[in-house]
Amino acid sequence: MTAAPSKSKPKPKTAAVPSKPNAAPASLRNAPGDDFLSDKATVALIRRVLVSDEASNGTQSLEAVLPPLTSSNPIDTQLYAIFAVVIKDFVQSWYSVITPDRAFIDEIIHTIAHCTRALEQRLRQTDIIALLLDEVPALLEKHINAYRTATRPQATLAHRPGPRQIYHSLNPHPALDPDQTPEQQARTAAAYRQLLVQGVLACLLPTEEVQNTSVRILVTDIVADLILRQAVDDKLSDPCFIYNLISVAVRSASSGRSDSAVQEDGRSRLEKFGLLSVQDESDSSSRTHTSSHRGLQSGVSSRFWSALHFVYVSLVVVRFIVLGLLHARQRPGTAPLNSGRAKRGHQTSHDQVIIHRVLDYRLFSTLSTLLKMPSRMPWLLGFLAFCRHLLSASSTRPGAFSSLLDRFAYNTLEQHVFVPPLIAVTLREARASIFPNNSLAPPATPLPSSQQQAPLASELRQQAASDLLSLIPKPIKQIYYTTTSEEEMRQAVEEEVLQAFDDRSMNRHLLYSVIDLIVVSLLPELVEKTPAELLADRGVILAN
Fold it and tell me: CA 131 to CA 303: how far, in whole Å?
């Protein structure tokens, strides 16, 4: 936010205007609002809440006074910031009134550290890339198809139940029954979250930590009722939040390009709007006879540098692909650590090469379904399927080009996409969305009805559609949507892409299904035993 200009001392009228524009870059203007996300504010929050006074007064780093959560310090910092917000508003608000002793909070920190370190070991034994790009998109595709079927006019006329009942019959979940009252739904979802977290703790915690009833119950309440409830039920399932999140992500992705464009246009605006001083105008008029010659030179120079930039980018891309293929050829995949869902992929018999079949991931079919490619451009879908078949037909042979291409794609994703810095940034943005200004959201209020929320959701959906269209080059989107009207393209994106997330209850079905998939992938023990049975194996008997 920028301060309003002062009116106490009016400026005298002068002909000269400062040569620099007054507008600050977007990153500087937005800095005060994002100050709670800065490294300094994050570290200060962690020290104030999680570190004792004796340790916080010293010069030791956080790594020296807090147990490690993972093998990456940036990820640890963001995770500790999330836990600090929860403990500050949920534990210290009542525990500090009872006693100033910090032993209980230290036990909670050590319990969480045990869970995160054990979870990291499970992650290393799981094919996270296949989980996020194949199995999770399959759930998203199922959600899209179920939503379109449930909201189809013929479905609502042919069946007595409403769209939510139809969706639940197509994509059921035990914790979400649309036939229950809102109070019953809240109790059922809360009980399901409690059971889920109890099962996770029973698998990850050591025996002595599991048998500590007070810490186990408190950690269960923190994760189930604060983190999961606020993230899933209150935030991520809200259509308005989803549309706003899409707009923020698109603007963040294109912020660098926009800032450079603003800086390039900053000097020309002085001349464009007549903001030069009288002396500057007289100097510029004396050079008008050379403007045409300089314009010609500028055009030739611009074309030359554009061609040089294109050649440079092409060489960089070719070098990246060649080095990546050589690296993939020299570093074949290793054998999976565990069977089942761990390190998913086809393993050859003699070379120990794992074929991940990246081109067969469900991410591509999900994008096709989301964009309605089978109905808009079936010929393009068939052509892409034929190309994928040619590239993956011989992927089971280690020496084939398709096998090499598969390893190159997988190694590229592993080394450049799923990396700790990107995970740390994702956690920081998640903290900003779920806990704005490093504090818990206010007490839950009754949710507005669909009619009350419809105008805001429609406005945010329109903005998100416009932001998504801004990422697509103009010729491509005109060809795909067979129109030159921006309004028609925006309406098509709203109806075909964004309306699939227009219902809170259906979004919760999708999110809970994704959580179940991730938990079962990391903790396959939960498939065979219930949380109560797992706790009983560790010597903890839950009361009925």
Answer: 45
Do residues 67 and 413 lie in contact, with contact meaning Cβ atoms separated by under 8 Å? no
Q: How much is the pTM?
A: 0.77
Residues of the chain with pLDDT under 70: 1-34, 53-58, 154-160, 255-297, 328-356, 393-402, 440-452, 543-544
Indicate the helix (H) or strand (E) that contains 106: helix 103-124
Q: How many C-beta atoms surround the C-beta of residue 369 within 10 A? A: 20
- % helix, strand, coil for the chain, step of 5: 70, 0, 25
Cβ 202 vs Cβ 538: under 8 Å: yes
> DSSP string of 5-28?
PP-SSPPPP-S---SS-SPPPHHH
**Per-residue pLDDT at 544:** 58
Nearest to 440 by CA among 35, 87, 112: 87
Could you tell me how far CA 244 lies from the centroid of its own chain? 13
- Token pair for 177: 């029954």
Nearest to 440 by CA among 95, 108, 89: 89
The DSSP code sequence of 477-494 is HHHHHT---HHHHHHHHI
Could you give the CA distance from residue 7 to residue 287 in angstroms, rounded to a whole number?
Answer: 39
pLDDT of residue 372: 92
Q: Is 8 exposed, middle or buried (0-12, 13-18, 19+ CB in 10 A)?
A: exposed
What CA–CA distances, in Å, run from 191 to 145, 165, 176, 188, 514?
Answer: 29, 21, 11, 5, 18
pLDDT at 56: 59
